[in-house]
Design goal:
Blueprint (H helix, E strand, L loop, with lengths): L4 E4 L10 H9 L2 E4 L3 E5 L2 H6 L9 E4 L2 H13 L9 E4 L2 H6 L10 E4 L4 H9 L5 E8 L4 H8 L3 E12 L12 E4 L2 H10 L9 E5 L1 H9 L6 E3 L7 H12 L3
Parallel strand pairs: 1-2, 1-9, 4-5, 4-7, 5-6, 7-8, 9-10, 10-11
Antiparallel strand pairs: 3-8
Helix pairs in contact: 1-9, 7-8
């Protein structure tokens, strides 16, 4: 079966320069976007029930831009003024630059990792005198707090936001040749919305090992995997597959 329609389980890109638009044009396919999950904030009341005092901490660890948003949201809702002495440890440059939305970047102590958690852990180990705060989502990768527990650092963790399934009921009668998933939560949302989902001729594309595992655990087959040596990005993996399937 030739590939004609693709559904990406993420929000539509903000920029026209997304490689997904190039993919659609070059291969004459339709690419739709629909987030399968969305984020809901934890209220100030719920946060208080976790018995965490943000101002007792001297450093914050950010593993995503979303964590940054909800850290400062909670601080504002509690009418807390985050001191200028607070240190920020960011898993990537993108997250570190995003901090400028909330703080004067050049006047703060900001430590940036390479995007890999192990490298971030190495950076944290150099600052064992700090009292770290780790904002998390529900659910979150269990290996993150697990690794922190093994490290000899002082830290607290708290749930600041939840990742929940979006309502996809309007897609019930819409058929796609490829479904693209970037997280296990997307797979959970698929079955939350469509408990009787059957794969049939639908191809499934996954990004990352945890998403791949979630698909297989759900009893589905994976046709397109990324990253891979020949396809470091999802769009490259899709293009390779489409060219093979759609060749005359």
């Amino acid at each position: 079966m030739k590939i004609k329609r693709i559904l990406v389980s993420q929000p539509k890109p903000d920029t026209d320069k997304s490689p997904y638009f190039d993919l659609a044009e070059k291969n004459n396919v339709i690419v739709d976007f629909r987030p399968f999950i969305h984020v809901e904030p934890v209220s100030a009341k719920e946060f208080r029930q976790q018995k965490i005092n943000l101002l007792e901490h001297t450093a914050v660890i950010f593993t995503s831009k979303t964590a940054i948003d909800h850290f400062f949201r909670i601080a504002e809702s509690l009418r807390l003024v985050i001191p200028n002495t607070m240190k920020y440890f960011c898993i990537s440059e993108a997250a570190a630059h995003y901090l400028q939305k909330y703080i004067v970047y050049r006047k703060r102590k900001i430590f940036v990792s390479t995007g890999k958690f192990d490298d971030l852990a190495d950076e944290l180990a150099k600052h064992k005198g700090e009292n770290f705060f780790l904002p998390l989502s529900d659910p979150h990768k269990p290996e993150i707090p697990r690794k922190f527990n093994k490290m000899k650092i002082k830290y607290s963790k708290a749930i600041l936001y939840r990742t929940v399934s979006s309502d996809l009921s309007d897609l019930k009668d819409v058929n796609y040749d490829i479904l693209v998933f970037y997280s296990p939560s997307g797979i959970a949302s698929l079955f939350h919305n469509f408990p009787d989902f059957k794969q049939n001729n639908t191809r499934i594309a996954t990004f990352g090992n945890s998403t791949l595992k979630a698909v297989k655990d759900a009893g589905l087959s994976v046709d397109i995997k990324a990253p891979a040596p020949q396809a470091p990005s999802m769009t490259m993996a899709l293009e390779n597959f489409i060219r093979k399937e759609n060749k005359p």
